[in-house]
Model the fold of this input.
Amino acid sequence: MNTPDERPVPPLTGGEREMLRGFLDFHRATLAMKCEGLTDEQLRQRSSPPSTLSLLGLVRHMAEVERTWFRRVINAEDLPLVWSDSDYQVAYDVADATRAESFAAWQAEVEHSRRIELAAETLDVTGHQPRWEADVSLRLVMLHLIHEYARHNGHADFLREAIDGVVGA
Done:
């Protein structure tokens, strides 16, 4: 089932994994919705000075978050970040970034994340998060990404409203 704006509706009942997956996909779709109908220039706009945050910067950041937590931590893939070897802040530099390039990278990382989650036997599968110096479960990763998306979708609300006055959901 989808919302009137076509985002997937998270389940109201069901198993833990189904609910985590549903809420994560809802938040992913919310970020995409906040960017709909905007030009590359509008997506790069830093619309809440003095902050340098932009909608395109958020999309690029979430590509890094997806890659880090699912591929690098849970799947133990030895690969750099999307836009840098190790500097997470580079994702926010959108001076020459485009919707096409940024969304393609983000959507590719989301698809990798989905495959990794679906292939995992249980939510108790663990990976090592070197920044925390700790092993973490897939359950924690999914909860962490829901938190990251929810937090950044709040930022996206303000950014979008400042760009063209669009508010809601």
